[in-house]
Amino acid sequence: MTFTDDLRGLFEQALDDATTQVARAASADLGRPTPCTDWDLGALVGHMVGQNEGFAAAVSAGDAPLSAYAAPALRQDEVRPRWDESADRLRAAFQDAPPDRRLRLAEFDREVSVSVALGMQVVDNAVHAWDVATALGEHYRPAEAVAQVVLESARQIAGRPGGTPGVFAPPQEVSGTDPWLEALALLGR
Fold it and tell me: What predicted TM-score, i.e. pTM, was given to this entire model?
């Protein structure tokens, strides 16, 4: 078992968790507020679908235009099928992609390896699963191994000069020693 195989397993867990939360959101009021400033539940799920589509296209083809990441405006009856289709495409794209192959992520204007993109998706899916659950008034906590990957990435993201404007909110005060709560605080939650 290699690091990338382990990461693929954690990606699968995070994507499954996000799928569970989106399924719950499909029957909720899409106008509900979320922890993401300026995004209601419908906009958050639309963003998640757009990220799945953009990353799937980039992993499959080595690049994808910025338009591939566009967040669709979703009607209530579109939430579940659009999410499921995009999640299936993302899962299939990563399935057999060589871990060291390079790809361009237009949304970030940078080139990364498939392994790095896989790690980005672990973070994105786990954190957005929490965002959706929180909007629904529910509790969500990923598996500890997923939380550790998110924490390691969150420390890197929060430590960058200027943070990551437009990606995550500014870091909040970290209190305690819980890795998941620390990761959320470092990502502005």
Answer: 0.93
